[in-house]
Design a protein that fits this description.
The complex is a heterodimer of chains A (390) and B (92). Chain A is an alpha/beta fold. Chain A folds into 2 domains: 258 residues, Rossmann fold; 94 residues, Oxidized Rhodanese, domain 1. Chain A is 34% helix and 16% strand. Chain A has 16 helices and 13 strands. In chain A, strands 3-2-1-4-5-6-7-8 form an 8-stranded mixed beta sheet, sandwiched between helices. In chain A, strands 9-13-12-10-11 form a 5-stranded parallel beta sheet. In chain A, helix 4 packs parallel to helix 5 and helix 4 runs parallel beside helix 10. Chain B is of the alpha+beta class. Chain B is built from 2 helices and 5 strands. In chain B, strand 3 and strand 4 form a beta hairpin. The longest helix of chain B is centred in the middle third of the chain and has 11 residues. The chains are: A alpha/beta (390), B alpha+beta (92). The interface between A and B is large, with 48 and 24 residues.
């Protein structure tokens, strides 16, 4: 694999030589390799779970220019795994938090700041100034966007994705290599695969996968080792087992195939079927909702309301409003536990799962099923602040 | 013959939480049929209504995607492993 950049005009100061001495004495790196790292321009899309180890280690390694794309703000729940950010950063833009730490680790790295939402209007322009792109995003629309923009720009996409305690890593968009669409031509419909907020994630997992990405970036720059082109690494962290699948370039791929039909960036939200509406039933009917304040008022008035909680047992252990627990997945099998003549208020954590439950119940003849808007989180915010939030 | 099917995390809730299911089959197609016969809840996650494998779910015989082998008709031997690898997007 040919190395990426013209590095003959790059020089290393005495300080840099001392800093990178452990690289320079390795035959796989040497002064020439370190100069290639300094000449390299890498763009990290996302500075969260995957982006944290990526940005930290690429900075430490001396990648010359590191671009960071992130519009998001540090949230308290991020700190369990997004190690680039500290408790004191909660509420700050992730990109500002990232720049502070990375500058402190290695002031020789030129950091470029893009506090913007990557989209079809700006992606190609942003990618122009970089040689390698890393995908540390958290949704299908952006992943397909990054993929297509990499193929159209002719730049490799060092990819990883995670779910709970499993991860995937590969390099897409390399010359003659497959792209993400060769592996997965289409995304799953929205709501089928839970996000980290809904499904949870082992904090260490993005650390593990982000390090695989960082390693692959370094290898691409140096032209060393065997990169993950045409290879999909699957990591099961609980079993600590690594498997590898072959990824073939699809000759009929619409974006990287012999006769591409996609030559411009498209509307990825539309491609992924995201309509951006809350609480709408799959049938299209509006889900009847009740606000926490109204619910409290009616309970205090002594009304006989059956409270159904459709979260998982481990969530119930964190906090509850003493509802009858039937996890959403079990509802079809356990519907006989419910009385269709009673008023039923259904809740989950934030209102999305319970909306599905109400839709299902209504279609099953439960005319008095209603969704608690905002779920137990809204109840904790508006009615009972002593309730733990998660 | 008996053969193992590896179940990925997102689908384990529909396979009685198992990470490996043993099936009896001569081809990949038969293996997947036996799998959904044993765990009917898996069917809608693997197959669309017209019975085709969902496009965001890949099936591998050992390390090769069955799309590049003989798809459902791909023969299996006892030492083979079938892996189901769905698309996931988490990263943050």
């Amino acid at each position: 694999m040919a190395p990426l950049n013209e590095s003959s005009s790059i020089t290393l100061s005495n300080d840099e030589i001392l800093r990178y001495s452990r690289h320079l004495i390795m035959p796989e790196v040497t002064m020439e390799g370190q100069k290639k790292l300094k000449a390299a321009r890498v763009l990290c899309v996302g500075t969260g779970g995957l982006g944290s180890p990526l940005a930290l280690y690429l900075t430490a390694a001396g990648v010359g220019t590191l671009g960071l794309v992130d519009f998001d703000v540090v949230d308290y729940t991020n700190l369990q795994r997004q190690v680039l950010h500290y408790t004191s950063d909660v509420g700050r833009l992730k990109i500002d938090s990232a720049i502070d730490k990375l500058t402190a680790i290695n002031p020789f790295v030129k950091l470029e700041r893009f506090d913007t939402y990557l989209n079809s209007q700006n992606a190609l322009e942003i990618f122009r100034g970089f040689d390698i792109i890393t995908d540390g995003t958290d949704n299908f629309a952006t992943r397909y966007l990054v993929n297509d923009a990499c193929v159209l720009s002719g730049k490799p996409n060092v990819y990883a994705s995670i779910f709970r305690f499993e991860g995937q890593a590969s390099i897409f968009g390399a010359e003659d290599g497959p792209c993400y669409r060769c592996l997965y031509p289409e995304p799953p419909p929205p709501g089928l695969v839970p996000s980290c907020a809904e499904g949870g994630v082992l904090g260490v997992l993005p650390g593990l996968l982000g390090m695989i990405q960082a390693t692959e970036v370094i290898k691409l720059i140096l032209g060393a080792g065997e990169p993950l082109i045409g290879r999909l690494v699957l990591v099961d962290a609980l079993a600590m087992r690594f498997r590898e699948m072959r990824v073939r370039k699809n000759p009929e791929c619409p974006v990287c195939g012999a006769n591409p039909t996609i030559k411009d960036l498209i509307d990825y939200n539309q491609f992924c079927g995201i309509r951006g509406e809350e609480g709408e039933a799959p049938t299209g009917a509006k889900i009847p909702e009740i606000q926490p304040e109204e619910f409290k008022r009616r309970l205090d008035a002594g009304e006989s309301i059956f409270v159904l909680d459709v979260r998982e047992p481990h969530e119930y252990q964190i906090c509850s409003i003493h509802g009858h627990l039937i996890p959403l997945g079990d509802l079809p099998k356990r519907i006989h536990e419910l009385d269709s003549s009673r008023e039923i208020v259904v809740h989950c954590k934030s209102g999305a799962r319970s909306a599905k439950a109400v839709d299902f119940l209504r279609q099953s003849g439960f005319k008095h099923a209603t969704n608690l808007t905002g779920g137990i989180l809204a109840w904790a915010n508006k009615i009972d602040p002593a309730l733990p939030k998660y | 013959m008996p053969i193992k099917v590896l179940i990925p995390t997102p689908l384990r809730p529909y396979a009685a939480k198992q990470s490996v299911v043993e099936v009896t089959a001569q081809t990949v197609g038969e293996a997947l049929s036996d799998l959904v016969a044993q765990h009917p809840d898996l069917r809608r996650h693997l197959f669309s209504e017209d019975g085709k494998l969902r496009s965001f779910v890949n099936v591998y015989l050992n390390d090769e995607d069955i799309r590049y082998l003989s798809k459902d008709a791909t023969p299996v031997k006892e030492t083979d492993t079938i892996a189901i690898v769905p698309s996931v997007a988490g990263g943050i």
